[in-house]
Amino acid sequence: MNLLILHGPNLNLLGEREPEIYGSMTLAELNAKIGAFARELRCKTRIRQSNSEGELIDILHANRKWAQAVVFNPGAYTHYSYALRDAVGAIASLGVPTIEVHLSDIKKREKFRRTSVIAPACLKQISGYGWESYTRAIQLLAATGKTHGR
Ligand code: DQA
Questions:
Q1: Is the CB of 73 under 6 A from ligand 1?
Q2: Could you say which residues of the chain have pLDDT below 50?
Q3: CA gap 105, 42 in Å, rounded
Q4: Domains of the chain (ranges plus CATH)?
Q5: Residues 89, 91, 97, CA angle at the centre, nearest 5°?
Q6: How many other C-beta atoms can be found within 10 angstroms of the C-beta atom of residue 101?
Q7: Residue 72 in contact with residue 8, Cβ under 8 Å?
């Protein structure tokens, strides 16, 4: 299965940024873990990060024919980007499902983080398991892909 792993804004600063919330792992270390986990499940990955809303949309569009599923941490765009929600909805309508992931538990933080405008376009939201939010999403997609013969 081909998986697009997409990290949104400020995730390039993982390891330095608010480690008490997001942990001490850098983005490079997180990506290495994701890549190794996906390989074990025979999934191919493309891993991308952008701080820009438009670029995240472009990456989703550009990978719509290659990717069979997407694991997406939209960062703060989660809470207000209808443009990203539409992009996720657009690729879902082409048969490419997305799981939204968060390192922290967005339901237990500030009020503005409790809402995701992107989640309704996603298969599922997985939040609060640190780097394992990503691996749980990959596991679920790989299992779903198998039952759908992909
Ligand atoms: C985050 C949660 C968001 O609210 C925040 O803006 C982030 C990271 C997470 O992974 O926990 O940038 O998506």
A1: yes
A2: 149-150
A3: 29
A4: 2-144 (3.40.50.9100)
A5: 85
A6: 27
A7: yes
